[in-house]
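Lab channel / #folding
Pinned by the channel admin:
"Please post every new chain as: sequence first, then the structure tokens as a reply. Keep commentary short and put observations after the output so the thread stays searchable."

First post following the new format, from NK:
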Amino acid sequence: MPIRACIFDVFGSLVDWRGSVARHVAGVAARKGVTLDAIAVATDWRAEYQPGMARVRDGARGYVPLEVLHLENFDRVLDQHGLSGAFDATDRITLNQAWERLDPWADVPEGLAMVRAQRLVAPCSNGSIAMMTRLARHGGLVWDAIVGADIARDYKPKPEVYHASARALGLAPSEVMMIAAHNDDLAAARDAGLSTGFFPRPTEHGPDQSTDLTAEQDWDVVAHDLKDLAQRLTDRT
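Reply from TO:
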């Protein structure tokens, strides 16, 4: 079947979580007079991402939106850094909003517009609809819809997230392409019956990144960045 919609991983693939969270944390800390290593806090905060979602995926707790998990995870990170008393409840909520204020990578606004000129586009993120809405406004990302974890009430890489996303767009999985800079996300999407598109984000985790530098399978489209992927999709039309 032809590809009628492209759905996107967001954190890392489209937006720079590491640099953006670090800048936001550093700014709040400076206003409060708190000394910390903002990059280390951002990195450790992200390290709690998968363990937090795993408890939902495994059925140990019911579905809660990602911003709830992020706030819980942040308390663990503050404790790890000896900062558990440094921020009050209002500060913690403000800090948690960092995940709604992530800056897009340079190729993303134009590349996303190029894809959208051809097909429906939507985020298929573990972020909630509320988070994706605010993130889109912050970064100037234009979507036709928002799908992903919130509509599935579960987290990637569970197959229902991909299936629910396709259903929400009124399409069969084979009519949808999952686009991401993460090989594991694409492997799960392929297993769920979706087409796949890959481009690397070689500095998502900083200058010494060692993962997801290249395509690890023969994904349907492999590109250098999102603009290149959009052009390759045009060539397939």
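NK: The two ends are 12 Å apart (CA to CA).
TO: also worth noting, The chain is about 45% helix and 10% strand.
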